Amino acid sequence: MSQIALWGAVELGLVYAFVAIGVFLAFRVLDFPDLTVDGSFPLGAAVTAVLIIAGVNPWIAAGVAMVAGAAAGIVTAMLNVRFKILNLLASILTMIALFSVNLRVMGKPNVALINADTMLSPFFGLGLREFYVRPLFIGVLVLVAVIVVWRFLESDAGLAMRATGANARMARAQGVDTNKQIYLGMAISNALVAFGGALFAQTNGFADVTSGVGTIVVGLAAVIIGETLLGARGILIALIGCVLGSILYRIAIQLALSTDMLGLQASDLNFVTAVLVTFALVLPRLRRGGAA
Amino acid sequence: MISVKNIQVVFGKGTPLQKQALNGVDLTIEQGSFVTVIGSNGAGKSTLLGVLAGDVLPSAGQVTIGKTDVTRKGTAARAGLVARVFQDPLTGSCGALSIEENLALAAKRGEARGLMAALGPKRREHFRERIAELNLGLENRMGDRMDLLSGGQRQAVSLVMATLAGSEVLLLDEHTAALDPGMAEFVMNLTQKIVSERKLTTMMVTHSMRQALDYGHRTVMLHGGEIVLDVAGDSRKELQVEDLIAMFRRIRGQTLDDDALLIG
User: Fold this and answer.
1) Which end of chain B is more exposed for a tag (fewer CB within 10 A), N or C?
2) How buried is B134 (Cβ within 10 angstroms: 0-12 exposed, 13-18 middle, 19+ buried)?
3) Whole-prediction pTM
4) Do B97 and A159 touch (CB under 8 A)?
5) Element (H, E) at B49
6) Can you tell me the distance from the alpha carbon of A57 to that of A63, in angstroms, rounded to the nearest whole number?
């Protein structure tokens, strides 16, 4: 694997670290199996791309993308909380609807961002090679996200959210409005995923309506790989695990696809993903089985 | 103070399984009083506790805790007034959080929760002191996950959690029923100590007639969703478990066939 390919994988892993953290919030903290992300990721990309083309500042465009993602999360939460639709099904309904919404937002299936100013543009002229600048820049943003989410989850408000996912009855007895927590958690989760989508559009130079397919699997893969490697040792370690898992996942995919010996091609991506996630799921069991 | 007036609770209304769980219950518990509630399965004692906690909203009647009418308020909305220890140790605390995180959660019961770190050094020290009072050695395990603790330890911590934030009333829902006899005694002694030290208005639901008579100032017996016995003071002091059973038979005019009620 070439150095450019390696740094490319790291960059993509960092972009998807936002997805991983969002998925961690929904699946692990709130215990809400949320497939909305398959729609909110391309939603973030679409909103950013359209706004940037319209001349909006790329940072503001990414901010609006986060708001759009949060709105998607709130819709899923409302279907579940207010209308009592099963959480998984509620998220699938939002995801399906978002496919059409994303097409409406872009007006076509694909929007190109070639030559447009992005959040990264100011950093390209500073002497560092482009394939370093991108992962560095996104890495800093990921670091900020990890710290903010970590401090939040260890605050009084964050404890209320964690209790909601872990023991809703106890949370209510402690005065936590668990419905409100689900709204808030789903909004934050999908805002992070949409921000990932916004970064994806800006680093890859396009937004595509199909780019959301399998986002949830990639996010879950990152979360699970992180847990497998670092174990359950508190919030900060779990968040670092999400980031690490996301990067390692991309490198593993890159390795699998670039090794001629295996004879794999780009179209085998989804199969390789499934195999990798299965491995990450089975590995902890095998280790425990071996020890016993 | 707790006051419930003419409470009606019907489960499964309009279905073949319709059940009148509480039928016109009137009960006033004065400030600082410790009341024990007994009754056979299905007598309505858990429902009564649920009505006070907010889990069950009555179809008629009025519930007042302190000076607040809470009849239509849900569990979370009235949590600032109600501290509670559940029967199942797994329900009352959060297994996935550490001991000190559980305490931090409980310390803010019924209050707004902000973005400040939940575990500052001051709070940590305060929690440590409170847990050290239990003499269970848990003060050295404050960072351990709650699900590493035994049922008895969890109930003991739950009792501490119930007293971290102020409340008008402490509700104990058969909180020793799931424990072994030794641990049950420990938790009951701890309960007695906490309730008398803090002069808490307390309602304890129990399956054990012995507990019902040994602890508290007043004993209420429920049957079929109604209060059938309400004793306090001297007449209660002279009361034995056998008397209670006899009284129960007389009031209801039927034989007692529920073994659970007889467990001393």
Assistant:
1) C
2) middle
3) 0.91
4) yes
5) helix B45-53
6) 10
Task: Report how far residue B30's alpha carbon sits from residue A288's, in angstroms, rounded to the nearest whole number.
Answer: 56
Kindly state whether A170 is in contact with chain B, defined as any CB-CB distance less than 8 angstroms. Answer: yes
Contact B108 A152 (CB under 8 A): no
Q: Which residues from chain B sit within 8 angstroms of residue A29, using beta carbons?
A: none
Domains in chain B, ordered, with CATH?
A: 1-73+201-264 (3.40.50.300)
Tokens describing residue A111? 């929007």
Unique residue bearing structure tokens 């994303």 = A102
CA distance A16 to A138: 10
CA pair distance B36, A193, nearest whole angstrom: 52
- Gap from B37 CA to chain A (nearest CA, Å): 21
Write out the residues of chain B at the interface with chain A, using a CB-CB cutoff of 8 A.
53, 74-77, 79-80, 82, 84, 86, 90-97, 101, 104-106, 108-111, 113-119
Does A158 touch chain B if contact means CB atoms closer than 8 Å?
Answer: yes
Cα-based distances in Å from A109 to A38, A43, A112, A208, A210: 15, 12, 10, 6, 8
pLDDT of residue A259: 75
* Statement: residue B12 has pLDDT above 60: yes
Run of H or E residues at B205? strand B202-205
* CA–CA separation, B236 and B218 (whole Å): 7
Q: CA neighbours within 13 Å on the CB side: how many for A243?
A: 20
- The interface predicted TM-score of the complex, written ipTM, equals 0.88
Q: What is the mean pLDDT of chain A?
A: 92
| Residues with pLDDT less than 70, chain A | 1, 261, 287-292
> DSSP of A184-244, one letter per residue?
HHHHHHHHHHHHHHHHHHHHHTEEEGGGGTTHHHHHHHHHHHHHHHH-S--HHHHHHHHHH
Contact B92 A170 (CB under 8 A): yes
Amino acid at B134: L
The predicted pLDDT at position A256 comes to 82
Candidate from A151, A163, A172 with C-beta closest to B75: A172
Q: Which of A166, A167, A174 sits opposite B106 (nearest CB)?
A: A174
Residue A274 to chain B, least CA–CA distance (Å): 29
Structural tokens at position B87: 């029967």
pLDDT value of residue A291: 45
